[in-house]
Amino acid sequence: MRRRRHVLLGLVLPLGLAAACELPTPPFGRVCDAENPCPDGYLCDEQACIPRELVADAGPLDAGP
Amino acid sequence: MLEALAAVFGLVAAAGAPPARPGDGPPDLVAKAYAAAEEARYCDAVPLFLALHGRAPQAKHLYRAAEVAYAARDHRMALDLYRSVLAAYPTFEKARSVADKVKQLEQLTGKGELGEVCPEPARECGDWVVVPGEQCDDGNLADGDACDGNCTLSSCGNGVRAGAEACDDGNLQDGDGCDANCTPSSCGNGIVAPPEQCDDGNQVDGDGCDRGCVYSGCGNGVLGADEECDDGNAKNGDGCDRNCTRSRCGNGALQSGEECDDGDSEDGDGCDAGCRSTRCGNGVVTAGERCDDGNLTDGDGCDSNCTPTGCGNGIVTEGERCEDGAADEGMVLLGGGLTFAGAALTASSLVLAGFGAVPALDHTAAAAAIEEAEGRADQDLDGALEDARTAQTMAAEANRRWLSYGAPLMVTAAASLLVGVALGTTGIWLWTEHAPPPMTPGDPKDEERIP
Question: What ipTM did this prediction achieve?
Answer without folding.
Answer: 0.71
